[in-house]
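Example record

The entry below shows one chain as it appears in the dataset: sequence first, then structure tokens.
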Amino acid sequence: MITETTHSPARQHPLGLGIQFKQEYKVRAGVARLPKAPDGLRFLKEITALPVPLLGPGLAKSAWGQLLGHPGLIAELERPAPERMQAAGLLVPTSLPAERLREFVIAVVVRPSGMVLADGGLNSIPLAGVGRLLIETSEHNSSISVNAWLSAQWVASSAELIGLLEEEFLRASSATQRAGRRSGVVALVESNVAAEVGNRLDAAAAVCGYELTTFEPPEFHDSAMNLMRSRVPSHLLVQSTLLNESSGIMKAFSRVSTRRVMLLDSAGSHGVLAALRARLHEAAGVSPGLMIFGEAVAEAEEDGYAYIAQIPLPVKKMGRKAHHSRFKAIVECLDAQLWYSRDLADHSRSGTVAFKCFRSGTKGLEWVADLDENAKIVIGKHKGPVGVLIPWEELGFS
């Protein structure tokens, strides 16, 4: 959360913005630091004085501080490129020796404090910032930074954020691309798709937390079957033009996984790429508006709901998310094979209902029980007819 007043640490960096004095960026290749000398901060001061879309001056200052001081993502690019900074309008000398430069991607999602639901919408919205940070180190000591430049973009949707991150993933070093643990997914696509947008398919999967393996005809049957025998993928995606050739693989996947096969039903390479993005965004639980399911969003007119919204949903391993006009967000728990929503009718703090629990039925979501804030079943509460069954056609998924 960001506020109008930035929090100042005991020792603040000369740049201000609530950044710690010894601001470090730790990556596999070693630690990089922001410069501290005034001459080395001139460009950063200019960029962080710029407005941030949809935020007032105080919140903009906090947003810049979060991006530089507390990025949620930091990755080092393979080859520092001053010319890319110049293309963004920054005065970076192209004569700088490459061995003294380090270039990073930093990203953060900021949510204004006091964000409330009023008149059917949010009074303020979350934003995501993606920046390119170039650091020049000292000629005599590579652990000392002497200058820094930053270019950044601020966006208000997950689709825009993921698009920016895909571009940066493609520019990242091979070590950065391989870093981290990601769930495996398999895609069966036509050969021309793999040839034309294969790298972008990998990037689209990676920024959603997946490691993608693609197989293409005519040899894809044996290869995919061998992979599933050794390691069951989290998801199987199949281009619709390959349904007949893929029937055996889909049956094998259905025998070892409770998840449905995802179809990529768009024509053309870029259509398949867009379809894969949409399916993996859904699978990863990406919220279109940069929201986190279970985070506290207060209701402007109803204090009781503000209290309920502060209690995390009893979901450990999140699956799909549904939206209903009356019950709002309903979240699938893969571990329990149940669905949960917040109770929007019983707003007291007296230990009564906080959540509603559903199971998946043939016609829709079937009510199982009401739960208190500790996820214990509330005994003896009368259940009216509303919400006993929520038909599938009344639900939207994201």
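Notes for this example: Residues 312-397 form one domain. The chain has a mean pLDDT of 77.
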